[in-house]
Amino acid sequence: MSTLFAVVETSGNVGETIVFWVCAFVAVAGALGMVLSHRAVHSALFIAATMMALAVLYVALSAPFLGMAQVVVYTGAVMMLFLFVLMIVGVDSSDSLVETIKGQRLAAIVLGLAFAALLVAAVGSATYQVQGLDAANTVDGGNVQGLAHLIFGRYVLAFEVTSALLITAALGAMVLAHRERHTPRPSQREQSEARVRSGYPQNLPGPGVYARHNAVGTPALLPDGTPTDLSVPEPLRGVSAVVGVDHEDTARVIALAAGRAVGPADEETES
Amino acid sequence: MTSLLAVAQGDLSIFGKDPFWLVLLKTLVLFVALILLTLFTTWFERRVVARMGQRSGPNRAGPLGLLQPLADGIKLALKEGITPASADKVVYLLAPMIAAAAAMLVFAVIPVGPVVSIFGTETPLQLTDFSVSTLYILAIASIGIYGIVLAGWSSGSTYSLLGGLRSSAQMISYEIAMGLSFVAVFLWAGSMSTSQIVAAQASTWWYGILLAPSFIIYLISMVGETNRAPFDLPEAEGELVAGFHTEYSGLRWAMFFLAEYVNMINVAAVSTTLFLGGWRMPPPISTIWPGANEGWWPVLWFVLKIYAIIFVFVWLRGTLPRLRYDQFMKFGWRVLIPLSIAWILVIATLKGIQNEYQTDLRTSLLWASGILLVIAALAFVVDVRRVAETVEEPPEFDAYAGGYPVPPLPGQEFTVTRRAKATVTATAVPVESATPIDEEEQS
User: Fold this and answer.
1) How many CB pairs under 8 A join A and B?
2) Range of the domain at A137
3) pLDDT at B366
4) Domain of B113?
5) Out of A55, B64, B85, B321, which residue is the most buried by the measure of CB atoms under 10 Å away?
6) Average pLDDT over residues B416-426
7) Do A214 and A149 share a structural domain?
8) Are B385 and B411 found together in one domain?
9) With left for phi above 0 and alpha for psi between -120 and 50, is residue B16 left, alpha or beta?
């Protein structure tokens, strides 16, 4: 942060100062919101806001490539995947507070301290051994070229090791999520052929088509008044969940439809 | 005049020097122009699709029905904005704003014309530009996805959620192909800034011809990216009612509508800038009429090019049925992305040779892209024929696979094994009746 302040103070640019304070506020508020919000999706949104504020700060600090890469990679790809998983997990699921890994807290504290030490060292070296952006950019003739030179030159081993790690992680995820199929997947053609051969190629009747009630368990009535199980979803079919059909009621409907006079049946429909 | 030369050479130093009022004016004009173009595009789409379907389309309100979008807009503004009880209120209201705002932001880096004089100030017809403005376009596009995903999630409806999931998966997948199709342009132009890419195309051919595979990949992925037919799976009405915006109505729905059409204009503008020479008129006309690339004329060429691309959008919608979801994803991941990577390899090699030996490799580039396209077409034909010819036979059942008696797997049937056959022929019983299945049927 001290470097940011330094930049803001030395440049003396009013616009830059405004950008810094707005983005700093958004970034810190987003970070706090991410920790404090109860729903996982809100946390993800807050951290996305933080990342975008950081990206704007990068751009304001004359590092547009870094800023854009931040938005494309972190906000666009990583956070979107997080959001994707959270959405699949469910809208109303709450966080489980049971710690499943032994020594989780201790490891978290140690790693947190280590990360803080790393950050202090990095910021310190950036503060006290300043080369200056212009000097760094002129070495390779541009910001992007300089980054490319460092990543694919001096740090190429670290870059490749990181990419190997990422690929391993991706492969691991694929292996874990892989499910063996015992039979070949039926093609669209086979499915349609099977459907025609099943003797009932058309859509199944929906619940309540011609029926007196529209509950899922109520069997639909065919145009001639006979009930059909086809409208009941497979898991409910044959189970006691299927509501019985009131045949007298059905008969009245058929009679009404046929235009025949039907006597008052109020005592029957009371139930 | 120096600034005119600067734009011709693709120098970025002319940007960021506009007075404050001019920046405001450009922003305002872009905003208003995008709204008006959206209105015009809805009319254009309905008229063209109607003509393709032997109808006349909207032709009552105003001349040629041009005021129809205005009437529709007023109707939308007067409708009730419904918020479902199960919705996550804040996110539900935020989502359309994110979608519309992200759509509006892209045009900030699109070069619309050369340097002109506005009220005595020489300025390029582009809000701003910087060294990585094409990445900015990709970044803004990825933020735009948030609007759709959050709308799907926050509505508290299954259809919306499924639509949101689908569209996020779709847009992420096709954004990869889109980004990869940019890489060839970056390599060949030697820059990621939009104005420099336009300037680079002035001295050579349009990248749409020179880098034809990239252009084709971009054309396909931009349709997927904007959720338009035949890739409009997130709002497949037969399956998902209206997808992510099922629960939206009134002005909030109008914002999604606006975002979709502005995004259409955006991707058309990006493809114009990156592949069709931007605002420049190509040589045969620009050599006869040198004034074609000066002053305000290029704005007209730019808009015409955009509408040529939008016509393709409408044409696709009027012609093609919607793809099945798994086919669509398979196409993105197994065809577009590997093809892009192979093409980038070719491009990088050629560019390396060109840099090393200072030769002009435009013809070899055309050969390479031609060969790649022929290979892709052949692969497609072979794939289609293979699928058509393959009669899916279940693997033959071996009752003693591995030396032990095993039951059939699902889909397999009992058949006569070698040993059973031997017994059968020894006892001279008809083969058919010896199979277990026939025995079952007889009983």
Assistant:
1) 88
2) 131-181
3) 78
4) 2-389
5) A55
6) 57
7) no
8) no
9) left
